[in-house]
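In keeping with the milestone schedule agreed at the kick-off meeting, the structural modelling team has produced records for the first pair of proteins. Each record is given below as a sequence line and a structure-token line. The laboratory manager (R.T.) confirmed that both were archived under the project's standard naming scheme.
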Amino acid sequence: MKISAVVVAAGRGLRAGGDQPKQWQPLAGRTSTFFALRAFARHPDIGPVVLVLHPDDLEADLAPEMPAVEVVAGGATRSASVRAGLEALEGRADLVLIHDAARPCVSRAVIDGVIAALQSAPAATPALPVVDALWRGEDGQVAGSVTRDGLYRAQTPQGFHLPDILRAHRAHPEGAADDVELARRVGLRVAITPGSEDNLKITLPDDLARADRILRDRDGY
């Protein structure tokens, strides 16, 4: 089966600091988007790779030496941006991996785990089990405990059979928290595959520093 990827970089989040969205902040000499794209562009079994950008970024020289990928304009929400990437791939691939550009440290092992699961499941996503104690808080105080049994921290890439996830997006244009939620709305079973602590999502300034260390320490950087 032919495998494609959609990397979403159309957001405008600034909580990571600086005057640019987090996916374009300097990171290990390049950007988060560069490393997220490279993980899929280098994979021997994946192609084409589609990068979804904010319309304001289409003409900008945001990152030198970017991997060779296709570029499409995103929408007003993450779900709309993902759908734009999926529409660009319709009829050109069997499977699709949807990844956030703000996760630059995704590994080949995490990607391969999702691909392997899609050979027998309609959808798959990497995740990590919650291991910390969970509390409910009220007015700045602990108000109770919450069981962590069966709870996971979701990651990307989230993988799907392309016709199925495109159908889910078309059926629910209002979107959802992520693509797994949309898949489940149309009845798809989603397998959980091994995630990685290194596969962090850049949200705050400390995340940039941690991702920088991970990328610089990796072989082949």
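The second protein of the pair:
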Amino acid sequence: MPSLIPLANVPPEMIEQLLDRAFGPGRHARTAYRIREGTDWLPGLSFAALDDDEMLVGTIQIWPVALTDPQGRQHPLLMVGPVAVVPEHQGEGYGKALMIASLDAIDGMSSEQPALPQVLIGDPDYYGRFFGFHADATGGWHCPGPNDPARLLVRTKNTAVLPQEGMLGPWMPAIAENR
């Protein structure tokens, strides 16, 4: 069983090294990076996994993003990922444990209102089967870069609160407050 700790307890350079190992040096060109550009991951929802020797083997980050509808209104979301595990430990349950920890933290954020919808880019079969993500509500959503619409997934208790169309991007509270 992996040991999970807050990602904020891990030096930033170690996180970057792990992400490079998991995704390669071209990772910054991915669409997900464009969606969350200019934001910082959320410390209370992001975690690291350590192996039995207390070595960093995985991370998950949660980011504040928004879906901007055709009228220019921002609808806040939480972007899940990257979920990164070093190659020699992939398939050992670290990624799943990290996902469970973050989703449990998101679901437990507020008892007064439902959690913000979560979005990710990933395998629909895996993330649907284990975590309840689906592409049913994201068909009219666009990304600031290339993406496969079938891999743009959302998790929420009520898809009716989501716009049918919009552009994903960083959450800009100042813009949202002025509308």
